Amino acid sequence: MPPEWMEGSPRPFSKVLVANRGEIAVRILRAARESGLVGVAMYSDSDASSLHVEVADEAVRIVGDTLDQTYLNGSAIIEAAKSCEADAIHPGYGFLSERAGFAREVESSGIVWIGPPAEAIETMGDKISARRLMIDSGVPVIPGEEVPVEDGADHLGNLAISAARVGYPLLLKASAGGGGKGMRAVSEPKSLRSEYEAAAREASAAFGDGTVYVERLLRNAKHVEIQVLCDSHGKAVHLNERDCSLQRRYQKVIEEAPSPAVSGSKREEMGQAAVTAAMSVGYVGAGTVEFLLASNGDFYFLEMNTRLQVEHPVTEMTTGVDLVQKQFEVAAGLGIGFEQHEVSQNGHSIEARIYAEDPRSGFLPSTGKLSMWRQPSGPGIRVDSGVREGDEVTIDFDPMLAKLIVHAPNRGAAIRRMDAALSEFVALGVTTNIEFLRNALNHASFRDGSIDTDFLDNSDPRELDGEEYDEGTLVAIAAAAQRLGLGSARNDSGEAVDEHTGHQGDPFRTLRRTFP
Amino acid sequence: MEWSVSSGNSRYKPTLEDRDGSIHVSSMSRDGMEVHPPDAAISADSQQGRLSVEVDGNQMIAHVARDGDSWWIHIDGRAHVVNLLEQGSGSASKDEGALTAPMPGTILDLMVKEGQRVREGQALMVLEAMKMEHRITSPKSGEITRLHYGKGDRVDMGSVLVEIGD
Fold it and tell me: ipTM of the assembly?
């Protein structure tokens, strides 16, 4: 039975399969339950006891060892949806969310696709066709050109000619890349070959395609993106901007809304350009139009992400619009439900991505067991997590563990709230970037809002090192913890077991226990 | 018992004493030299995995988790790792000159050969993990005495990749 709010809609549905994992699957499954839908998780064997399976109403197993056999296996996912009678599929972000072929298969099998039309994914997913469409629609684009790349041909010569025309420094983008994969900066002609080869390898490893696009690299620019929302009745609104300038190798690290660099009139101008971009491709649902904002106020279309973004919560916090709920409504054929002038901008929100990675060894992903995981809480603090205490972090998946989002009346208060929340975030057993996030957040250039997209890649790592804690004190705590028998092995029920006696619990702790 | 902090190389040997219901450090040596012991009083907290710590008169809570001989400590808003060292082992950083895989992955490219001299920070190989490429650089200047893997090989976390002599 579809929920009551869906009554009378053209495409009602009642059961949603979430074709994803981690924090975004958890986020969508919770939203589904909240709005009266049945949420179904899918999982591979290595994910059988993951958080997203736990929070789902139902879960289906997809057999296979690799991503291609599981989370990237469109036909198996559609079969799974049919087997549990799910009548809608939400793809989340990543995985199959921007595969037009998958969207088409879902729709042709009679299942509601909670995402944009396949044609919109196709046009925007191909950087070259997206660029052509933007030029035709009057949306400004960065100077650049495409280079056809065929297997076995001598593509380097053509690439060098195009590169010379566009001018260095430049950016190589595999047409099918994304999220920083298959994208390389080239500062001078002599490194063109090695960077091209790396980009092509990454793109084919991640996305199974190897074509390349050459683009002028703009320095001192900010990454500002506009959230758009469109319904199937031809109506489109924008939900203001997000500033994602704090990036490392094109991976966003900290995002915020509003942007410290965007004025009210610039917001209007960029918002209008984003709505034009979305309308030109016949967009339906929640999407994001990414721009580079130059220091002189000019902005250029980067790409459109035809899906929910990782950083969508900062928009939700400042506009009060639940984007996943809106995705459900629009997929069911309902209208947006509000007008552009009703979109509010309330306070300031910041998101920090918590990664299992080691900033001290070149940000290599780290693995291990999350032996302690205590999330911060309090007014204006939201944690979208895909993990819980005791979970094993492996290299099988993306190293993002959770997102910490804060909301406060203004930017200064939001930075202080984020710093306090990060300092309360206890994640032990796996090395994380939490300390690095604090150091970046507290850097003078972030605080005054002047950073550009190259800030992290160009800064001296030592500048981003935190204070050293007294080693002697740390050793004293570890030695005392050992003497007190802390952190001893746990039995299956989670009770501490004394390593020597095998008994549960610490008798002294029991004696010391106070009762209300 | 000797300890070291993951981010440092010194070896510490604390002597603990119980006083007024909490644990204090009566003396401490660093790399065999007597140093001023930290002014810390540590006691159990009513909650699992927590310690009550008083440092220089400031009272705070430390979260502690153990993983084998490594102790993970979260105090004053930051996480640290302290390792219990085996008695009599030479230096805090084992296998000096041997570079180990920081994580499991596949070797995409090798830029050096055995016998080649390398500078500190020079790229030695490219390791692919989680669909991203990571450059492995030389921790010191010296000669490559041994390459344990070739292009295309899969490596486990901690496997010795390269040995570098002086």
Answer: 0.81
- Of A99, A307, A382, A438, the catalytic one is A307
- What pLDDT does A491 receive? 38
- What is the rounded distance in angstroms from the CA atom of residue A114 to the CA atom of residue A332? 8
pLDDT in tens, A179-204: 667 788 899 999 998 888 887 777 66
Q: Do B49 and A486 touch (CB under 8 A)?
A: yes
Regarding predicted confidence, which is higher, A142 or A181? Answer: A142
The span from the CA of B5 to the CA of B81, in Å, is: 6
Interface of A with B in 363-422 (CB under 8 A): 364-369, 371-372, 374, 395, 397-399, 422
> Does the active-site annotation cover A307?
yes
Task: Say how many Å lie between the first and final Cα of chain B, rounded.
Answer: 31
Q: Which residues of A451-477 are buried (b: 16+ CB within 10 A; e: fewer)?
A: bbbbbbeeeeeeebeeeebebbbbbbb
pLDDT value, residue A96? 97
Answer whether B16 sits within 8 Å of A480, measured CB to CB: yes
pLDDT at position A202: 76
Distances (CA, A) of A491 to A37, A499, A502, B33: 37, 11, 9, 41
Q: How confident is the model at residue A499 (pLDDT cuts 50, 70, 90)?
A: very low
Of B4, B103, B137, the CB nearest to A365: B103
Radius of gyration of chain B (CA): 21
Domains of chain A plus CATH, in order, are 4-114 (3.40.50.20), 143-216 (3.30.1490.20), 219-346 (3.30.470.20), 348-467 (3.30.470.20), 473-512 (no CATH)
| Of A201 and A368, more confident | A368
Chains A and B form CB pairs within 8 A to the count of 181
Domain ranges of chain B: 2-85, 98-165
Q: What angle do CA A480, A483, A488 make, to 5 degrees?
A: 105
Chain B contact for A10, CB < 8 A? no
- In CATH terms, the fold of domain B98-165 is OB fold (Dihydrolipoamide Acetyltransferase, E2P) (2.40.50)
CA A320 – CA A309 distance, rounded (Å): 16
Which of B37, B65, B129 lies at the smallest CB-CB distance from A395?
B129
pLDDT at B155: 86
Q: Is B79's CB within 8 Å of A434's CB?
A: yes
pLDDT of residue A502: 40
Which chain A residue has its CA at the smallest distance from B129's CA?
A395
How do residues A431-474 score in pLDDT, each as one tens digit?
A: 999 999 999 999 999 999 999 998 998 887 777 777 789 999 99
Q: How far off is chain A from B152, nearest CA to CA, in Å?
A: 13
Across A92-106, A452-466, B87-101, least confident range: B87-101
Angle at A292 between CA A403 and CA A150, to 5 degrees: 95
